[in-house]
Design a protein that fits this description.
Strand content: 15-25%
Oligomer: single chain
Structural class: alpha+beta
Largest sheet: 2 strands, antiparallel
Number of strands: 4
Shape: elongated
Order of helices and strands: EEEEHH
Amino acid sequence: MIVTTYTCDRCKHTQTTNLQMWYVSVCVTDRPLQPRYTAATRVHEVLWCRDCVSVVGITFPPPVVPPDTPKPTFEDFIREIMRDEIANASER
């Protein structure tokens, strides 16, 4: 079995997944870029854990949790079919 270990370049924290690790880099340009272009040269790129990223003030938006939609049951399908049939019959 192959195990990949991710190490924070700032605090040396290690973990086996990269879910809470981010690449941090500083880009320098001599002119403002157009909004649609993101071609800047990364001078130095480091891998930091969430704690280190938070300490320097880089914040992340809260994760978007999709609303819980109940899965339709068999009875729900039958009721929908019946409503459609009744609506179609009353239109005739």
